[in-house]
Each structure stands twice: as structure tokens, then as C-alpha cells.
């Protein structure tokens, strides 16, 4: 057990009969190892696998672990002898003897001879190859690549393993009066014990020694027909598995006592003995530490692995006796590698002040022990259960819910279970859990995490987890931000899993027009749900915790669907855009949906256009803006909230620090006096709005508040976009007053102005041009559908196109009855700022005496250096003129 033989096959042992000490004494024998060069290796080694991941295998092989005595109670005299042996005296003497032996070995060979036994270096291989080619000996094999090492090789890990095994062996014997060697091996080297235990399971009889060895280790040997066991492991690879390289420099350093030899191992052993003496002294001082913080710091750096079971129990009892008071309680309790810790210790444990508990490597802890623990630590925030070799499950689920066993810690925020080789299943309820790390548990197959707050789930290195297992637990997790599944080879749809949704196909099936790539982008938050997709299956929205945008416009929604959507909005923390345009929501349904936004702090854009939600919904929206601080864009066009609804809503929006765009188009009816007054006050008070749309609200400009409204617009310094169009459609008799237009031009922040279908005539166009002649911010002007002729356009543009004004980039003059006269064209030739010009639905055609209009346009295209887009839709241009225009376009870069 202490030396880990790599080549302990039957032929490497001699059974010698000992002479009797008395005539009646039964016969006694001893085993003598005669070939021990492959000893003190690692239990689990790595083997290269042709460029792939290294393979792990158990390197130890010995007939001794197959003896029937391994499965019998250790004789009392042997038990007593090893329990009391002074290994701290034996090991130094042994290393000194090895040092003398090392010197004897080195004296037998010169440096050149020792080097000749080592593997060839790359330089030596190349040198030999050149010599063979030079002497035409290509068919002669190169010198044999040997792996012989002259010396006694050690490294730090080797002597530490022997030392810790010796200590562990004595601790086991002191803690057990009757124990089998195989049970001792399980405590010292669990993988090794598991390997040889299989031999006794198949061949339990005492006389089956060779059968057991052949079953367990036979495959590692060559077996010629009728012959014995021949090892295939050479010394070189064996030493390299223990990180001992084969090189001449290493041999020289060993000879000098500087590295990798007995002399260096003796220095390391002395340090280990000193550290143990110091730790034993510290252990005796622990009980004298007065402050809980001092004892906490002691345990943080203390390793129970090197402490006897008796000392462990004394220390645990001292800790337990002080945990009942807040003054004496340790809050961050580290008990790592405490082999004496069991569930019995936690019975009656007053751990109400413990917030962190580290139980790494506490080898005797089982699931039942942890359930006892959970009852005594109600305030626990972090639990570390790594390296628990006996932990098979933590909670379990069965088809019958009544028999489920759920592990629950209500305050727990972090759970860590790593390198638990036997761990198969976890079923935990943690309402506050934010981080779960389940790494390198190769047998973990079932996991149900009822953890609605979970943000980080680390499942790396769990080779048994399947898509189905992950799918079952993801439905409980709605706020996951990070999912790690590297090394989970049985998970097929990794790209879906890493979107952290309820994956993969529960969501995919609800999107009739979706494909795999669209779904992936949707789940990653890179796309919105397409128009109409899944509108009737919104119940599945909870399975897309990363959803950023939802567009179900033009799809009528039932009341039951609206209730589902409202519940989703209350809990969702990722959705930023919601488009409900024309979804048939009425004044009874809308408040249900709107009130859910009071607790939502992520939605930034809401569209309710073309839903008759009525004034009562405006009241609900007013309540939302008392608590909601995220909504930036609100579209209420054509929602029938009327004059009284606007009067209530606008005051609530005055103090909003988030709203940047507001669409109140087509809302007013009646006199509009009250809402117009509220709108004026809103424009004076709000400091965040940058875009406002007031289309089809002519009544607001036809009452006594019109002057105040234009004055508020003129003084506003935050608005960048203003839409006052379509007043003509609502009230053909209404026209803007001259003074209204003049005040509008005083605004010094607008960059985009729409007066589309505002019933502006030629004289008003001239006033508009004069009003904006000193403006240096306007970049877009929309005058589509007014009554401005060529002369009016000239009157408008001459002030705007003056030398000092070079900001206007886009101009829409569509549907104004323009003819395209020469003065009209000259204006665009001299302008050096305009990039987009729209002339749709005018009178550009080649008859009725207007043959020159397209020629003038061609001239504009040739002379103007900034235009990149011109639109001439619906102008009745003939095919011949279109061809002439195309020919002109070939010569310019438009």
C-alpha cells in the first residue's frame, strides 16, 4: 500500500519459509520482492493517445492485493505494530540508506556509460541518420532507444505520497479496532480498492489467487502461450508518469544531491515533519483563541487531512459548543477534508449564524447527513460539497410527486459540487440561489433545480448529462445569464443550450414561420418574434427568458391571451420592445396589460396604435409612469383616449425622466381645450422628450391655446423631431395662422419637421421660409401633400438655401402640383447641402407645353454635387423621357 508497485506480477515475488522459533510453532512465511524498480508511482497515470485527450488508467499492479488476506480482519499483532510504529524515525533512516545506495550505483558507471542507457535526443537521432546515409547504410536499423535509469529517483510528490499514506494508515488503525486490509485500501486509495474488489466479487474463494490477478491485471501483461506474465511498461515512461524526466542533467543533479534523488527527498521529509509539528501545536492553541474571527481564520488555513480522528473529533466538539451564541459563532466555517464529520455531528448543531460552509473532501458525508445539516443552518449563503466520494444524490424525484425528496436551503445563494465521482442526481429548491457549480461529476444524469433566481449554471465535465436532463431543469430557470456545458458530450444541441432558454424545440414548435437559425437568433436576443408568429401560443413565452422583442401586430388577441401576456410582463427582465399595433384590444382589456408594466423595468418601447383603448387606459398609463423608469417610446396613435384621456395622461408624463418619443396622433375630439392646455404645460416642463408626433390633431391648433402651444414649441430645447401633419384630412377648413408659422421657426433645436398635408399654400410657404432662414439645425423638412406651386417653392427655398444655411439634407415636395420650371431647377443647382429630394405625384411630364421640365432636371443632376437620391414616382413620364434621363444618369454619380 505504501510503495505502489507497478510490476507486482507473481514471478517478481519469492515465498520464503521462516525457521520456527519453537517445535510446536505453525509454519511461517514471508514474501520477498525481487524486482522493485517500478515502485512509488502514481495510482492513476496518464497515457498519450495519438494527439487526442490523454487517457487515464490505474498504473498499480500487484499480486499482493489479490491475496485472500486482503479480505480478512487484520491480525491484532499486525494492527498494533503498524499503529504504533514511529514512521517519523523510519522514513529518514530509509532515505539515508537509499542515498548511500545511490552513490554505490553511480560509482559503477562513468558519466558516458550512464548517458548511453538514456533515450536518444533529437540531435543524436539526426546525427545517426546522417552517418547512415553517408555510409550507404540506409537499411541498417538505428541504435536501440533505451530507457534505463541508473539511480534512485524521487520528486516532491513521491515522498509526500509516502509520508501522507503512512500518516493516513496510522489514523485509520487508531480509529478502528477491527478492519480488513481492503477496507484500509479504500480509505487510502479508493480507485485502487475498487479495482481489486472486483477480483474478490468474481473469485471469492481463498485459493483463487491467480484467477483474481489474471482478471484484474492480466490485460496489462503479455501472455505467451503456456508462459507467465511479461510487463510492457519500460522504466522511462513509468518515471515520466511521476514527472521524473530521463536526461543526463537529471542524473548528474541526483549524484550531487540537488534534485530528484534521496538527498532532496530527505530535505522535503524534514520540512513535512516540521509542518506537522507546527500544526499539532496550533491545534492545541485553537481552544485558547478567544475571538470567533481568529478561530474562523485558523480553520480557513487548517487541513483536517493531516489530523488524527481523535483530534478531529475534539476540534469539532469545541466548534459546536460555541456556535449557539452570536459572539462565539463562526460565520464562515471551513471543515475541509474532515474524515470524522458525519450527520451525527449536525444533530443539535446551532448554525443559525453560519453563512458559509466548506465541506470539501469530507469523505464520510452522505445524502442523509446533508439533509440533517440543512435543518441546522437556516442562514447559509454558500455551501461547498466538492470531493465527496460517498455522495450519490442530493434529493431525488420519482414519477409519483408525493415520494419526491427535495433538498432545500431558503437563503442559499451559491452551491458548489465538483469532482464527486459517484454523484448521480440532484433535486434542490433554492429560491435565492444565483450560482450553481456542478463540475466534473461523470455520473450525474438527473438534475432538477427549482431556482427561479439562478443566473450562473456551470455543468462542465459532466459526461452523462443529456439534452432531456438539461431540458427538464431549464423550465424552472427564467433569469439565467451564463450556462457552461463544455465536456458534456451527450448534449447534442449545444448551440440551443447556450442560449439559456427552455430548449431546444418547445419554442421552435411555436414559431410556424421559423427556421433553426431564426430561432437561435431569437433565443439569443438578436431578433424579435416575427409579426404574427406564436401569437396564439404566448403561454410559451416564459420559456424564452432572453427574449428582447415581441411583435404580434395585426393579430387579434383574446382576453385569455392578454392575461398571459400581462403575467409575463410582470416577471420578465429582458423584453425591451412590444408591438401590439391593431390587435383588437379594447378599453376593458387594455388596463390589465398596462398595469403589469408598473413592476416591469426593462420595457423601453410600447406600441398600442390602432386599438380603441379609451380614456380609462390613459388613467392606467398615468399610474404606470409613477413607478416605471424604463419606457422611452410610447405610441398611442389612434387609440381613442380622447380629450379627457390626454388631459390626465400628459401631466403624468411631465416629470418622466425616461420618455424620449411620444405619439399622440389622432386622439382629440370635442373642443380639445383641456388637453391642449395640458400639452402646453407638458412641453414647458418635460426635459427628455426628443420626438413628438401630433398628426390629425387640428383641433388643438384651432382653439385659444394655439398661441401658447406654438410659444411652448418655440421655447423647447430638447425636441429634435416634430410631426404636425395631416391636419387637412381632419379639418379641410383649417389653415395654420401666419403667426403660428413664425413662432414655429423660432425653435432652435428641431432637426426634423413634418407638415405633411397641413393645408399650407404658396403665401404660407414664403412665411415658413422666412421663419427658418436663420435656423442652423433643421436637416429634414416634409411638405408632402400641400398647395405649394413652383413660385411658392422658390419663395420657401431661397431663404433656406442661402449661403449661411447648409444643414438641410432631406426635402419632400411630393403632391404639390409642381411643374419643374427653370427657376425651380436653378435653386437646386446652387444648393450644396441637399442629399435627398422627393418629387412624387407632381406634374413632370412631356406635353402640354412643359417639354423643358425634365431637361431642367437633367441639368440639376449634372451640376449639383450633393444629391444622392431623387424620387419621381407617379409623374407620368414618357418612355422616351425616361430613356433620356437614364442616359444623363450614366454620366453622373448619383
Q: How would you describe this protein?
A:
It is a single chain. The protein has 32 helices and 30 strands. The chain is of the alpha/beta class. The strands form 6 sheets. Strands 18-19-20-21-22-23-24-25-26-27-28-29-30 form a 13-stranded parallel sheet, with no helix packed on it. About 4% of the residues have low confidence.
Strand content: 5-15%
Which regions have little confidence, pLDDT < 50, spanning 5+ residues? Answer: 500-514, 530-537, 729-733, 846-852
How can the largest sheet be summarized?
13 strands, parallel
pLDDT average, as an integer? 79
Strand order of the largest sheet: 18-19-20-21-22-23-24-25-26-27-28-29-30
Going by helix content, strand content and strand pairing, the class is alpha/beta
Shape: elongated
Give Rg in angstroms.
43 Å
Q: What kind of oligomer do you see?
A: single chain
Number of helices: 32
Distance between the termini: 87 Å
The beta-strand count equals 30
Helix content: 25-40%
Amino acid at each position: 500500500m505504501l510503495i505502489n508497485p507497478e510490476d507486482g506480477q507473481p514471478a517478481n515475488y519469492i515465498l520464503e519459509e521462516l525457521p520456527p522459533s519453537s517445535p510446536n510453532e505453525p509454519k511461517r512465511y514471508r514474501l520477498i520482492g525481487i524486482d522493485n524498480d517500478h515502485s512509488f508511482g502514481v495510482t492513476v497515470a496518464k497515457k498519450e493517445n495519438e494527439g487526442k485527450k490523454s487517457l487515464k488508467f490505474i498504473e498499480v499492479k500487484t499480486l499482493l492485493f489479490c491475496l485472500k488476506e486482503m479480505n480478512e480482519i487484520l491480525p491484532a499483532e499486525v494492527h498494533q505494530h503498524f499503529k504504533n510504529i514511529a514512521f517519523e524515525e523510519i522514513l529518514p533512516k530509509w532515505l539515508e540508506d537509499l542515498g548511500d545506495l545511490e552513490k554505490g550505483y553511480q560509482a559503477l558507471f562513468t558519466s558516458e556509460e550512464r548517458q548511453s542507457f538514456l533515450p536518444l535526443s533529437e540531435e543524436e537521432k539526426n546525427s545517426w541518420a546522417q552517418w547512415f546515409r553517408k555510409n550507404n547504410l540506409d537499411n541498417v536499423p538505428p541504435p536501440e532507444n533505451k530507457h534505463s535509469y541508473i539511480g534512485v529517483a524521487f520528486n516532491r510528490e513521491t515522498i509526500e505520497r509516502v509520508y501522507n499514506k503512512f500518516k493516513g494508515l496510522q489514523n485509520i488503525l487508531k480509529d478502528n479496532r477491527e478492519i480488513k486490509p481492503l477496507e484500509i485500501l479504500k480509505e487510502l486509495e479508493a480507485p485502487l480498492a475498487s479495482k481489486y474488489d472486483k477480483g474478490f466479487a468474481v473469485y471469492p474463494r481463498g485459493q483463487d489467487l491467480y484467477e483474481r490477478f489474471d482478471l484484474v491485471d492480466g490485460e496489462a501483461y503479455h501472455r505467451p502461450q503456456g508462459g507467465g506474465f511479461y510487463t510492457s511498461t519500460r522504466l522511462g515512461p513509468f518515471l515520466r508518469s511521476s514527472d521524473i524526466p530521463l536526461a543526463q542533467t537529471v542524473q548528474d543533479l541526483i549524484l550531487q544531491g540537488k534534485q530528484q534523488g534521496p538527498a532532496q527527498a530527505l530535505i522535503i521529509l524534514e520540512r513535512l515533519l516540521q509542518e506537522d509539528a507546527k500544526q499539532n501545536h496550533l491545534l492545541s492553541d485553537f481552544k485558547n483563541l478567544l475571538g470567533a474571527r481568529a478561530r474562523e481564520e485558523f480553520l480557513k488555513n487548517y487541513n483536517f487531512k493531516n489530523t488524527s480522528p481523535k483530534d478531529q473529533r475534539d476540534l469539532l466538539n469545541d466548534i459546536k459548543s460555541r456556535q449557539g451564541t452570536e459572539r462565539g459563532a463562526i460565520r464562515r466555517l471551513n471543515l475541509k477534508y474532515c474524515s470524522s464529520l458525519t450527520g451525527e455531528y449536525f444533530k443539535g448543531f446551532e448554525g443559525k449564524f453560519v453563512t458559509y460552509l466548506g465541506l470539501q473532501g469530507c469523505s464520510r458525508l452522505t445524502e442523509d447527513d446533508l439533509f440533517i445539516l440543512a435543518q441546522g443552518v437556516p442562514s447559509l449563503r454558500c455551501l461547498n460539497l466538492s470531493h465527496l466520494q460517498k455522495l450519490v444524490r442530493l434529493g431525488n424525484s420519482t414519477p409519483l410527486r408525493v415520494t419526491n425528496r427535495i433538498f432545500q436551503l431558503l437563503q442559499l445563494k451559491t452551491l458548489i459540487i465538483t469532482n464527486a465521482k459517484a454523484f448521480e442526481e440532484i433535486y434542490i429548491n433554492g429560491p435565492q440561489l444565483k450560482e450553481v457549480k456542478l463540475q466534473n461529476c461523470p455520473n450525474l444524469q438527473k438534475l432538477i433545480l427549482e431556482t427561479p433566481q439562478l443566473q450562473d449554471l456551470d455543468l462542465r465535465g459532466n459526461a452523462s448529462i443529456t439534452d432531456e436532463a438539461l431540458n427538464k431543469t431549464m423550465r424552472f430557470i427564467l433569469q439565467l445569464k451564463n450556462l457552461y456545458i463544455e465536456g458534456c458530450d451527450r448534449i447534442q444541441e449545444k448551440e440551443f443550450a447556450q442560449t439559456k432558454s427552455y430548449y431546444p424545440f418547445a419554442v421552435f414548435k411555436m414559431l410556424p414561420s421559423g427556421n433553426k437559425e431564426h430561432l437561435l437568433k431569437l433565443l439569443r436576443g438578436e431578433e424579435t418574434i416575427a409579426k404574427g408568429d406564436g401569437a396564439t401560443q404566448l403561454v410559451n413565452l416564459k420559456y424564452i427568458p432572453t427574449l428582447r422583442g415581441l411583435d404580434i401586430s395585426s393579430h387579434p388577441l383574446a382576453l385569455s391571451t392578454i392575461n398571459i401576456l400581462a403575467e409575463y410582463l410582470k416577471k420578465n427582465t429582458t423584453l425591451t420592445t412590444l408591438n401590439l399595433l391593431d390587435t383588437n384590444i379594447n378599453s376593458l382589456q387594455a388596463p390589465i396589460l398596462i398595469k403589469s408594466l408598473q413592476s416591469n423595468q426593462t420595457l423601453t418601447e410600447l406600441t398600442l396604435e390602432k386599438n380603441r383603448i379609451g380614456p380609462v387606459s390613459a388613467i392606467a398609463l398615468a399610474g404606470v409612469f409613477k413607478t416605471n423608469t424604463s419606457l422611452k417610446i410610447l405610441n398611442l396613435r389612434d387609440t381613442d383616449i380622447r380629450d379627457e384621456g390626454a388631459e390626465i395622461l400628459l401631466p403624468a408624463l411631465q416629470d418622466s425622466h425616461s420618455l424620449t418619443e411620444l405619439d399622440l396622433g389622432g386622439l382629440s375630439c370635442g373642443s380639445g381645450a383641456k388637453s391642449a392646455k395640458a400639452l402646453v404645460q407638458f412641453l414647458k416642463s418635460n426635459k427628455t422628450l426628443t420626438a413628438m408626433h401630433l398628426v390629425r390633431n387640428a383641433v388643438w391648433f384651432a382653439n385659444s391655446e394655439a398661441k401658447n402651444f406654438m410659444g411652448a414649441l418655440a421655447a423647447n430645447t430638447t425636441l429634435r423631431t416634430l410631426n404636425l401633419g395631416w391636419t387637412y384630412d381632419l379639418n379641410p377648413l383649417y389653415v395654420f395662422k401666419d403667426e403660428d408659422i413664425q413662432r414655429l421657426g423660432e425653435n432652435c433645436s428641431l432637426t426634423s419637421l413634418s407638415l405633411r398635408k397641413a393645408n399650407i399654400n404658396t403665401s404660407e410657404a414664403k412665411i415658413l421660409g422666412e421663419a427658418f432662414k436663420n435656423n442652423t439645425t433643421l436637416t429634414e423638412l416634409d411638405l408632402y401633400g400641400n398647395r405649394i406651386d413652383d413660385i411658392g417653392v422658390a419663395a420657401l427655398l431661397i431663404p433656406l438655401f442661402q449661403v449661411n444655411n447648409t444643414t438641410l439634407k432631406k426635402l419632400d415636395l411630393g403632391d404639390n402640383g409642381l411643374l419643374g420650371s427653370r427657376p425651380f431647377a436653378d435653386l437646386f443647382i446652387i444648393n450644396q447641402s441637399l442629399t435627398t429630394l422627393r418629387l412624387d405625384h407632381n406634374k413632370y411630364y412631356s406635353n402640354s407645353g412643359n417639354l423643358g421640365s425634365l431637361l431642367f432636371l437633367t441639368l440639376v443632376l449634372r451640376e449639383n454635387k450633393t444629391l444622392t437620391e431623387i424620387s419621381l414616382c407617379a409623374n407620368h413620364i414618357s418612355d422616351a423621357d425616361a430613356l433620356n434621363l437614364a442616359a444623363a444618369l450614366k454620366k453622373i454619380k448619383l
